[in-house]
From TrEMBL:
Keyword field: Acetylation, Cell projection, Cilium, Cilium biogenesis/degradation, Coiled coil, Cytoplasm, Cytoskeleton, Differentiation, Phosphoprotein, Spermatogenesis
Protein name, per record: Intraflagellar transport protein 81 homolog
Record domain IFT81 calponin homology: where: 3-126
Domain of life: Eukaryota
Biological process (GO), any one: cell differentiation
Family: Belongs to the IFT81 family.
Chain intervals for the UniProt region annotation (Disordered): 362-387
GO molecular function: tubulin binding
GO cellular component: ciliary basal body; intraciliary transport particle B
Cell compartment(s), UniProt: Cytoplasm, Cytoskeleton, Cilium basal body
Biased composition (Basic and acidic residues): 362-379
PANTHER family: INTRAFLAGELLAR TRANSPORT PROTEIN 81 HOMOLOG
Species for this entry: Sylvia borin
Gene3D superfamilies recorded: Intraflagellar transport protein 81, N-terminal domain
Amino acid sequence: MGDQMQFIVEKLNQEPFRKNYNLISFDSLESLQLLQLLSDVLGEIDPKHAVDIREELPEQTAKRMLNLLGILKYKPPGPVSDLSAFRQGLVTGSKAVIHPVLHWLLQRTNELRTRAYLARFLVKLEVPAEFLQDDTVADFNKQYEELMEAFKNLHKEHEQLKISGLSTAEIRRDISAMEEEKDQLAKRVERLKKRVETVQNHQRMLEIARQLRLEKEREESLAQQKQEQKRQLFHAEERLQRAQVQLKEMQQVVADSKPESLMKKLEEEINFNSYLVTEKIPGEMESKKTSVYYLEKVVAEPAMTQADLTALQSELDEVNAQMNQLIEKRMITYEPTDSKFSMYRQQASIMSRKKEAKAEELQAAKEEMSSLERQREQKSSQAHGLEGSEVLTEEEFKQYVSKLRSKNTFYKKKRLEIAEITAEYGILQRTEELLRQRHEAIQQQLQAIEEKKGISGYSYTQEELERVSAVKSEMDEVKGQTLDNMSEMVKKLNAMVTEKKASLAPVIKELRQLRQNCQELTQERDEKKIQYDSCVAGLETNRSALEQEVKGLLEECAQEESNYHYINCMKRNVEIQLQRAKEEMKTYMSPDPQERRRAVREQYTRIILEQENLGKKLREKQKVVRESHGSNMKQMKMWQDFEQLMECKRDCFLKQQNQAAIGQIIQEGGKDRLVL
């Protein structure tokens, strides 16, 4: 207990509470102060509970705290029967109840804060079945469940991204590096296309190269399939060997087992199942039926007021007093034989409770074992379906994780080196392109200078020499002079190029410094953007939390207004009923007979007398009907027989008439034949 209080005091003195307590001051806190302290801790976990308990009723405070503790899945120490004592202690601010709650909350504040945040979105609203019959309500409920599932998935992805350790700056750098690689590859493809277009039959060669690539890819896939099938065959052989080993072990177990041991196990199992069927389960069913009966009875009763509760409490006190008196009388008339029987009964009850407890423990152990077996089979089947191999052991998994981490570190390092080399390559390529453009510009300037100096076409000097070889002897002097001029011009041009390079060197150096500054500024801008995004996200979260809190307060206000109007209506109804009761009492106690007749009691008395007289008449009529029932039934039977007899005569008469008509027609037909 001292360690618990020490831990609570240390946590309360830290951020964000800063209470400056010591053990003596904390132990001397009153019940109201303890409740306010518990409310502050709950408010740190869930901001909706950061309220002043002096502004709400004790019942509301206890209900609010119990709801949040239920959401946080707090289990009070002790058996289940002490839950009522826990609630009572929470209402009264008992130290024995609040200190364990504070210790439990302060041990896992971050975890409980996350759980409380998720509870705002994942605690499902139960909609009654009769409302779900409406299509609109059913559609909204379905959309609500889908949004809840989507929130679960997004939260899981968010947590996985937090654990993975990836930063947005690193992702952006990777994206920019990949975009640069993409641009470089696109340029390279364009250059290769231009080179290939000059080759004859390049389309046919491209088609052959594509077919070669497809065949190589197919060969690689076939090799991978072959390797995969070899691995699957190896795992299948391993599983077969393990199954054979298990079969041999089971055969040995069956061979070593004796009928006596099997019969003993079966008898134990039969005894346990018979105990469950005959004693435990019927008792539980009876207790459940009794509790359901009492709950239905409580639900069927009207709402109870404080006066009703006071009356019931007084009746309960009277019954308890009577029970105490009976116990005292029994103790006075105590006999030794009763003590022996009570001792035996006590021992029997203790043994029965132990038996029930052991049976429950055995049943729970069996259920847990079966659930663990199902989970093991499910996990093994999932592992077989995914990898086709057995699950790694703990040591093997640790080695695999360490190798994977080292490979990941090595991969990131190499990827960073590749990115740096790629960036440097892009810079060099751009420098080469700029130098090429400058070279072309210098060539154009050179051509212009050659044209200006009269030595146009120096690059084609060799062709000109071959063309004018026939007149070489005539132009020796002119050629010598021209070569001297050209050498002088080349020297001048080389001097100009050197001068240009010297003048461009500081510009290139400054450009490199500016590029480096640009990269630093870009990185700083990315960091500031990340800070801005996180700040915006935090403000948005706070705004949504405040909106939810305001919405909850508005709903609570509306609920309180509804309760207020309902209580006023109930009060009005009770006042009307009380007024009617007073008027009825006044009318009933009046000395005037005429006024007394207007009383409701007198009216109902007259109605009861009239109904009793009517009942007597109906009973007399029923007696007469019963007495004449036999003769009336005989008479009715005679009339039914008479009716059947008359119907039979009518049928016979009709048949006779039909036969006479048919005979007459036959006779007339015979006479006609004779005449003919």
